[in-house]
From TrEMBL:
PANTHER family: OLIGOPEPTIDE-BINDING PROTEIN APPA, PERIPLASMIC BINDING COMPONENT OF ABC TRANSPORTER. Pfam families: SBP_bac_5. Residues 1-20 are annotated as: Disordered. The keyword Chaperone does not apply. Keywords: Membrane, Signal, Transmembrane, Transmembrane helix, Transport. Belongs to the bacterial solute-binding protein 5 family. This is ABC transporter substrate-binding protein.
Length: 568
């Protein structure tokens, strides 16, 4: 694929009744590489802009008015942040919902809807003092009851949370002390609790909105923008909350947003998003195609932000509970059969770092020495391992044992695909075949992907990236109780008492050295057992028109639109 990919863009501006469309290139460059995205993604990072665009220097002060349209891959599966787990939900809902606290550093937090808090000596009780005078978009007052209602809603089995509930797994109850004081009790000490409360998936919701039937749910928060509409698979539209007066510590200004509105366009085609930005149809895009990043920078008039995401890398998880992958030799053979470095380099033009650890190197407690456990690319070693496991070459070059072909199921979820992960998957398929491993890629819709595969377990391989600025994400991914059916990310279905002990101790201890040692042990173990094949570290390539000013990013690498304004 090149910068010259043919693109057709509607004449009607994005965010209106029409939609952006493109002619998909007839041929995608060589059958290279790997994985359709679950995209349970969140994203945390460090990084910065490649260089400031022309036109920002000497700009006048902020100007109110206008609507900014932001195009991104993926789509909404639910408007309720307590239910959905996608990065799209986090990005959009961050503008609708405020949180109790804001993350200000790797392990520091500042006030937001909570002005202060105290933690009991045993680490189990948090008492939050809340801001006065804050109002939800539906006109109801923000009080301690809203905090209780939100947290209770998250953990309620009827909510069917796909992520948020796992963030506060030790939650026991909330007690309303008075309108502006709430006491939250945990079943055990849990040091990641404040970080969990800072993310949009635990944004504080209106109790009145939560009391409505699920079919009538609409997101109602206290944030700088309020919900207007959701056109499924097309766009979500938000409007300014003119009464907004509850920004977090460190916000660029204290009043209402400058923008009158925000429109999030769902545009899965990379070339279409890029063309929409450069033609002026939209003012910002997520997921700048790596092949276009250099050209965009040279055009002028745009800002390209590059952020390497902390949390879980984009990894391939191996379901070790069924079929051939029950044997660690087969799991390590698959890892050794795939030349990840070559595939990632060829597809992403050096923009995405090759991963050799389930954690991103920007994540606290990342242990570089764990790489020694990874079964790195070695086709001869892969073949030896398969021979030892009793899988012999058969018809068509695929391995056979007891009359069965060594075939693995890796479901493809088109609605979650991004960053050419489908192309990467083709490369993994091709290289696994050289070792005699057959990978099948059934295409499924969202409903089947969740019910038959993620919950039903009828898969051998699943690909996921998941960003979160804390090593507690290892508990999310590998603790035995954190399966997808239980709102977790343990899609390898790991059931290891040792790993459970490490991640629980790390979450409960107040000693950073003990936590770091535990997290390091997990990284070594999951690579040694080949529960995971790391692929690449997602890099957020986000581009804004120079007309969009005041852009900042939070700890999750979501753009912060409260202070954004449109210049000439």
């Amino acid at each position: 694929m090149s910068d010259d990919t043919a693109t057709q863009v509607d004449d009607e501006p994005a965010g209106r009744r029409g939609s952006l469309r493109s002619r998909r290139p007839a041929v995608v460059a060589a059958a290279l590489v790997v994985a359709a995205a679950i995209v349970l993604v969140l994203v945390v990072t460090t990084g910065g802009r490649d260089e400031p665009s022309a036109g920002r220097a000497g700009a006048a002060g902020p100007v109110a008015g206008g609507t900014l349209t932001y195009a991104l891959a993926g789509t909404q599966v639910s408007l309720d942040p307590a239910v959905a787990a996608t990065a799209v939900t986090g990005l959009i809902d961050r503008n609708i919902f405020d949180s109790l606290v804001v993350q200000t550093g790797p392990a520091t937090f500042g006030p937001w809807l909570a002005t202060k808090w105290a933690v009991s000596g045993d680490g189990r009780t948090y008492t939050f003092t809340l801001r006065d005078g804050v109002t939800f978009h539906d006109g109801t007052p923000f009080t301690a009851e809203a905090v209780k209602a939100t947290l209770d809603h998250v953990v309620d089995p009827a909510t069917k949370s796909a992520y948020a509930a796992s963030l506060i797994a030790p939650y026991e109850k909330s007690r309303v002390v008075d309108d502006h004081v709430v006491e939250v009790t945990l079943k055990r000490p849990f040091t990641p609790f404040l970080q969990a409360l800072s993310v949009p998936y635990l944004g504080i919701q209106s109790p009145a909105a939560l009391a409505k039937p699920v079919a009538d749910y609409r997101p109602v928060g206290t944030g700088p923008f309020s919900y207007v509409s959701w056109e499924k698979d097309k766009r979500v539209t938000l409007s300014k909350n003119a009464a907004y007066a509850s920004p977090p510590a460190g916000a660029s200004h204290q009043g209402a947003a400058y923008l009158d509105g925000l429109v999030f366009e769902f545009v899965p085609e990379d070339a279409t998003r890029y063309g929409a930005l450069t033609s002026g149809q939209v003012q910002a895009i997520a997921g700048v195609p790596p092949v276009n990043a250099g050209r965009l920078r040279s055009l002028g008039g745009f800002d390209l932000t590059v952020q390497e995401t902390p949390g879980l890398n984009y990894n391939l998880y191996l379901n070790q509970t069924r079929g051939p992958l029950k044997d660690v030799r087969v799991r390590r053979a698959l890892s050794a059969a795939v030349n990840v470095a070559e595939l990632v380099k060829n597809i992403y033009f050096g923009r995405f770092p090759v991963a050799r650890n389930p954690l991103s190197r920007t994540t606290a407690a990342y242990d570089a020495t764990a790489e020694s456990e990874l079964a790195s690319y070695d086709l001869a070693a892969a073949e030896r391992l398969l021979d030892e496991a009793g899988w012999k070459k058969g018809p068509g070059g695929y391995r056979v044992k007891d009359g069965r072909t060594l075939a693995l199921t890796w479901p493809y979820w088109a609605e979650g695909n991004k960053e050419q992960r489908d192309v990467l998957a083709e490369g993994v398929q091709a290289q696994a075949k050289l070792a005699g491993i057959k990978i099948e890629r059934p295409a499924v819709d969202t409903g089947a992907f969740v019910s038959k595969y993620l919950i039903g377990g009828e898969y051998d391989l699943v690909d996921v990236s998941f960003a979160r600025p804390t090593p507690d994400v290892l508990r999310f991914a590998f603790a035995s109780g954190n399966t997808y059916a239980k709102a977790g990310g343990n899609v390898a279905l790991v059931d290891s008492p040792r790993i459970d002990t490490w991640v629980e101790e790390a979450a409960e201890t107040s000693d950073p050295a003990t936590a770091a040692k535990d997290y390091a042990a997990v990284q070594h173990e999951v690579l040694r057992q080949a529960y995971v094949l790391p692929l690449y570290t997602p890099v957020q390539l986000t581009a804004f028109s120079a007309k969009a000013r005041g852009v900042a990013f939070d700890a999750q690498t979501y753009p912060v639109f409260h202070g954004v304004w449109l210049g000439a």
